[in-house]
Design brief:
This protein has 116 residues and is mainly beta. 14% of the residues lie in helices and 44% in strands. The protein has a 5-stranded antiparallel β-sheet with strand order 4-3-2-1-5. Strand 3 (66-80) and strand 4 form a beta hairpin.
């Protein structure tokens, strides 16, 4: 139900600060407003366990559970060479068409950058 309420709220046009012109950004009053403004846009999500996601955000709730599509997942692993004890970082990437992201694993959400 909360997810549906958020989706209904997302359908409303974003509010602007009083006296603001059309060229200014919509008003962000609470942290989740920034995520609301990123609906249907590509975002960057950093997860626990050195995982990163880049994809299109379709829905979210107050727990930061998210539904995303067209995702590129990057996983970074650390390996230690047994002979030289050298740390070797390896990254692997994969594409995922649709994903539900559980909010308790989310560390950071970055909205899309706006070109000025």
């Amino acid at each position: 139900i909360l997810l549906l309420n958020r989706l209904a709220m997302a359908a409303e046009p974003p509010r602007q600060a009083e006296g603001a012109s059309e060229a200014t950004l919509p008003l962000v009053e609470q942290p989740l407003d920034l995520i609301r403004l990123s609906l249907e846009e590509r975002i960057f999500v950093k997860l626990r366990s050195e995982r990163e996601l880049r994809g299109k955000l379709h829905a979210y709730d107050h727990h930061l559970n998210m539904v995303m599509s067209d995702i590129e997942e990057t996983v970074t692993t650390l390996e230690v060479d047994e002979e030289t004890y050298e740390e070797i970082y390896r990254t692997s990437k994969r594409n995922i068409p649709l994903m539900f992201v559980r909010g308790d694993g989310v560390v950071l959400v970055s909205p899309p950058s706006k070109a000025s």
